[in-house]
């Protein structure tokens, strides 16, 4: 725990650096694609609309929309020199048949399908191979629109080789996918940081809801991205997933509000969140069993999502004002900003879906990312500061004030929590005749003797283990890994160093030493190992005393 604040601080700095480098890399790739892979498409120009009722013909460029028309036929002559090019186009919910003169070469959505998520046509890319024999012939495309939402909407047609078209898709829809992975990365970062501080669950709850918001946003951005739709084999399931994500996008805000205590209308907010979650689950089950078609009712989904969120925020705002909770104003305003900006996105999307998907960087996505990093960074910094203070208090409570080593309380706690293994070692030290030094040379010199031994122990053993002042004149060193160390050599090294440094001291100083390594055959607990080390230390103390008496 002592290293947690430092690790968090370092990880946060690394995260910010990674984010900065990531942004630079994304823009570099985008610029590289923009300039090194130029893509020109003239096949979307000079199409003709064939009115099925009056046979009138109009010329127009794609994309185009003919509101209110549910059956359309457009045509254009295939150019010469196809050179292995394919026809690429995007449909949102149209059924389509393609003819070259009177020969049917492609159809989609005209035959009934079965299975999960196969209840309708949906957003999909199409790739049609044009044979050399088709050069100069008339290409005719028939559209049928089952839903009012996209009636008469025709997207661009591209005539291109596969590799060139793929590069063009990457260039056009790159940023949308980047937003998705940015939110997904944010989710991972927030969860990893929060897991370190899991003991402060109550304080990190808002951050976890932000992480959930990032996860749902990433699912939405990925499943609704045309580049990703091009790459997957089942775009209908993908688009259904995007609608479900859209229905759930405001759930983190609802769940966050339901956890707020001492707030007016809390029961209403919690009930609202439960009802909305149940609604999403029921709709999903009905879609799975093909009872309903979510795609057909996506207008209702959009309106439901917007109105329910609006009602929620109005209620929450009234509750905050009534409860005078100023601490909740900032997060609620941030959530509300995301919702309002999403409304702008939706209006732009409705007016021009092609331009939105290709050239428009989502405002809501931008606000989401800024929201995630600002709030998460602020909250994590606050938690780190609080955690740092807690660690400082803990260290002070575990530290011997005079010597800077750990104290006896820390020693007794730590030996109970050690994981026992044959690599565990312990050395015990006792300052000989400390009372004599206090009486004869003064208590100041007595304290200096204790500090002198403590500093020597820290210099020699702090990198190898933990140092404790386990008594008035006793110290203990615990080494967790003695696999590459010999405690007896360490004992001798300490005595040699001590004898070299005591020559200039104004008082005599000697230390008795004992050591032992955990042996599971004779030690039931690590306390037994410590006891064996102390027994050896006492024998060493007795030996030194007898030697001094013989010398006298």
Oligomer: single chain
Largest sheet: 6 strands, antiparallel
CATH architecture term of the largest domain: Up-down Bundle
Q: Radius of gyration, rounded?
A: 37 Å
Q: What general form does the structure show? A: elongated
**Helix- and strand-based class?**
alpha+beta
CATH topology descriptor of the largest domain: Rhopdopsin 7-helix transmembrane proteins
β-sheet strand percentage: 5-15%
Helix content class: 55-70%
When the domains are counted, the total is 3
Nearest-integer average pLDDT: 76
Low-confidence parts:
1-6, 114-120, 357-361
CATH first level of the largest domain: Mainly Alpha
Instruction: Please count the helical segments.
Output: 16
Written overview of the protein:
The protein has three domains: 4-9 and 170-390, Rhopdopsin 7-helix transmembrane proteins; 47-160, Jelly Rolls, CATH 2.60.120.260; 408-551, Alpha-Beta Plaits. The relative contact order is 0.08. The radius of gyration is 37 Å and the shape is elongated. Helix 1 runs antiparallel to helix 11 and helix 2 runs antiparallel to helix 3 (201-223). The strands form four sheets. It has a six-stranded antiparallel β-sheet with strand order 2-1-4-9-6-7, with no helix packed on it. Strands 13-14-12-15 form a four-stranded antiparallel β-sheet, sandwiched between helices. It has a three-stranded antiparallel β-sheet with strand order 8-5-11. The longest helix is centred in the C-terminal third of the chain and has 36 residues, at 363-398. A hairpin with a 5-residue loop joins strand 13 and strand 14. It is 57% helix and 14% strand. The protein has helices at 4-36, 162-196, 201-223, 226-231, 235-248, 251-258, 266-288, 298-323, 329-351, 353-359, 363-398, 408-417, 434-441, 443-461, 487-501, 526-551, and strands spanning 47-50, 57-60, 64-65, 71-77, 86-91, 95-100, 103-108, 124-129, 138-144, 153-154, 157-160, 425-431, 466-468, 474-479, 511-517. With 552 residues, the protein is of the alpha+beta class.
């Amino acid at each position: 725990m002592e290293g947690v604040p430092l690790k968090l601080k370092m990880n946060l700095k690394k995260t910010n650096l990674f984010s900065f480098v990531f942004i630079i890399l994304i823009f570099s790739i985008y610029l590289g694609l923009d300039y090194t892979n130029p893509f020109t498409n003239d096949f979307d120009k000079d199409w003709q609309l064939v009115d099925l009722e009056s046979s009138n013909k109009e010329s127009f460029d794609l994309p185009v929309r003919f509101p209110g028309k549910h059956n359309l036929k457009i045509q254009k002559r295939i150019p010469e020199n196809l050179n292995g090019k394919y026809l690429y186009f995007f449909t949102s919910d149209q059924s389509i048949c393609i003819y070259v003169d009177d020969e049917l070469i492609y159809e989609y959505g005209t035959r009934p399908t079965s299975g999960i998520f196969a209840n309708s046509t949906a957003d999909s890319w199409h790739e049609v191979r044009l044979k050399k024999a088709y050069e100069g012939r008339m290409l005719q495309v028939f559209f049928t629109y089952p839903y009012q939402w996209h009636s008469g909407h025709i997207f661009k047609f591209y005539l291109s080789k596969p590799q060139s078209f793929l590069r063009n898709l990457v260039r056009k829809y790159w940023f949308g996918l980047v937003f998705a992975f940015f939110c997904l990365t944010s989710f991972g970062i927030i969860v990893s940081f929060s897991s370190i501080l899991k003991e402060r669950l109550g304080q990190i709850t808002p951050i976890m809801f932000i992480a959930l918001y990032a996860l749902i946003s990433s699912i939405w951005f990925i499943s609704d991205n045309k580049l990703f739709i091009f790459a997957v084999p089942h775009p209908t399931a993908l688009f259904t997933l995007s609608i479900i994500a859209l229905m759930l996008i405001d759930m983190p805000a609802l769940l966050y509000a339901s956890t707020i205590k001492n707030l007016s209308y809390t029961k209403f907010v919690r009930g609202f969140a439960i009802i909305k979650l149940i609604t999403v689950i029921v709709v999903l089950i009905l879609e799975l069993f093909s009872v309903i078609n979510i795609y057909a009712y996506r207008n209702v989904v959009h309106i439901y999502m917007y109105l329910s969120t609006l009602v929620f925020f109005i209620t929450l705002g009234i509750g905050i004002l009534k409860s005078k909770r100023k601490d909740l104003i900032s997060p609620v305003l941030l959530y509300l900003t995301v919702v309002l900006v999403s409304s702008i996105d939706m209006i732009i999307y409705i007016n021009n879906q092609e331009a939105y998907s290709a050239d428009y960087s989502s405002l809501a996505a931008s606000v989401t990312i800024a929201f995630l990093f600002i709030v998460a960074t602020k909250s994590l910094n606050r938690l780190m500061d609080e955690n740092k203070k807690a660690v400082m208090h803990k260290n002070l409570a575990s530290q011997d004030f005079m010597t800077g080593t750990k104290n006896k309380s820390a020693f007794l706690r730590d030996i109970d929590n050690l994981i026992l293994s044959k690599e565990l070692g312990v050395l015990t030290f006792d300052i000989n005749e400390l009372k004599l030094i206090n009486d004869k040379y003064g208590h100041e010199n007595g304290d200096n003797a204790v500090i002198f031994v403590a500093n020597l122990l820290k210099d020699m053993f702090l990198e190898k283990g933990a140092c404790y002042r386990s008594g008035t004149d006793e110290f203990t060193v615990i080494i967790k890994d003695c696999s590459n160390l010999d405690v007896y050599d360490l004992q001798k090294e300490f005595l040699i160093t001590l004898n070299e440094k005591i020559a200039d001291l104004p008082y005599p100083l000697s230390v008795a030493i004992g050591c032992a390594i955990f042996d599971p055959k004779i030690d039931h607990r690590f306390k037994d190992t410590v006891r064996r080390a102390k027994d050896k230390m006492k024998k060493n103390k007795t030996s030194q005393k007898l030697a001094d008496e013989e010398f006298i």
